Amino acid sequence: MVLRALWIQSTLRVLGVLTLLLLLATGGGVVWAGVSVEEGRGPVFLHEPPSRLHFSNTTGALLPCSAHGNPPPRVEWLSGGEVVVDVPDVRVVHANGSLQFLPFPPYAYTATVHAATYSCRAASAAGTILSIPVHVRA
Predict the structure, then answer these.
(1) What are 101-132's pLDDT values in tens digits?
(2) How many whole angstroms separate alpha carbon 113 and alpha carbon 101?
(3) Which of 43, 51, 61, 103 could pair with 67 as two cysteines, CB 3.0-4.6 Å apart?
């Protein structure tokens, strides 16, 4: 009788671990010791920008950056330690995480925009990641 009870206990433990692994593998939400396993999935880049971007003032260029995680991360661009914002008729920060450099006339060249280093940052309550630096030259 004692051996049977021990066998049942061991079997239930193994089934519990297998159930947990199955739920994790299928993306099921699991709570373990008060912490949701689904929470805390820090950001991961889906599309990380290249290390260099060279473009002509007549063509412009697009730097993509996207990430996922739980909770969904906020994607933003940094340059010189500051968050990048739109510069009318020169640079656009898109809601999807892309950074666009618009075509511009030669007199509109701005070194702080067109000859700068940028990084993409994805941040959420579960963590923050930073892309490799992107050296931009127009």
Answers:
(1) 999 999 999 999 999 999 999 999 999 999 99
(2) 9
(3) 43
